[in-house]
Amino acid sequence: MASRTRRPTWRDRGRRPPRTVSAFLASLLFLSSLAPGCGYTLRSALPSNLKSIAIPVFGNNTVEFGIADDVTQALVNGFLNDRHLKIVQERDADSVLRGTVLAYKNQVFGYTSQERATEYEVVLTVQIAFRDVGRNRDLWKEDALTVRSTYNVVAVGAEAAKTEADGRRDAVQKLADLVVSRTVQGW
């Protein structure tokens, strides 16, 4: 059997591909970006029967004054901004989001070499359930949904020092963003 010698290609010569190949690959990439698939979507994963939501004031099992009101207000604002569900009174709602603040901690997270606290972490834990009122079932629920937020109490570079109120506000906002996303988009 005779061996064949292969003719060198543009790759073997260390050159760029011919323009037709480059143009084809660019066209293919462009067309694939237009094709439907597993990419990010803004479409809602909500059942079609849900058009409204009620968010009663959360319970508070902590000694942290006002935390339940802050969480409730952040959730209301989150759903108002999202616009997939209309905020209504509980008696008129297709769905209800209920919860209780179970724990709130503000704890040291970082130290200097002299053991002086420089960074703190706010840990916020809630029990929460999103219920389809018409079908009388929970669409999702968490017995201990926890979010964390850290903040520096000393200036770091161009970033100013923050307070516990800043860390608390960030943790509450993270919780609201997570709950809205999970409710509307399913993740």
Task: Please describe the structure with a list of short key phrases separated by commas or semicolons.
29% helix, 187 residues, Double Stranded RNA Binding Domain, alpha/beta
For the sheet with most strands, the description reads:
6 strands, mixed
Question: CATH superfamily, please?
Answer: Lipoprotein like domain
Number of helices: 3
Give a count of the beta strands, DSSP E runs of length 2 or more: 6
Provide the helix percentage: 25-40%
Q: How many separate domains make up the residues?
A: 1
Looking at the structure, the CATH topology is Double Stranded RNA Binding Domain
Poorly predicted runs of 5 or more residues: 34-41
What percentage of amino acids are in beta strands? 25-35%
CA radius of gyration:
26 Å
Approximate shape: flat
Instruction: Quote the average pLDDT.
Output: 85
Structural class: alpha/beta
